[in-house]
Amino acid sequence: RKSWNCAHARSSFIYQSIKQSARLAKRVEILLDELKVGLRPMATAAVVDAYDMLRVEILAHIEMQRTVTRKEEEVH
Predict the structure, then answer these.
(1) Residue 67 pLDDT > 80, yes or no?
(2) pTM
(3) What is the model's pLDDT at position 57?
(4) Shortest CA distance to 59 belongs to which of 70, 67, 49?
(5) Any residues with CB less than 8 A from the CB of 44 and at least 6 apart, and which?
(6) Which alpha helices (H) appear in 1-76, and where do they start and end?
(7) In terms of C-beta density within 10 A (0-12 exposed, 13-18 middle, 19 or more buried), how is residue 56 classed?
(8) What is the DSSP letter of 38?
(9) pLDDT digits over 21-34, tens only?
(10) Which of 18, 65, 70, 74 could form a disulfide bond with 25, CB atoms 3.0-4.6 angstroms apart?
């Protein structure tokens, strides 16, 4: 993980959206909202690390959903 030495760097990182696509970024925001995670949490080093890990997990979840959907379509 990155070292978050200053508040500005942490804030900049946590407020940037997902870079893959606007649609994917929106899906991540929806899942964060469902999990009751604020889109603008306090940017402490611990929060930024946890928030980043959560976004990575959400992206992995979305990719797994896509894979399952693709495989189900292949079977049927």
Answers:
(1) yes
(2) 0.71
(3) 93
(4) 67
(5) 10
(6) 7-15, 22-34, 45-75
(7) exposed
(8) -
(9) 888 888 888 998 99
(10) 18
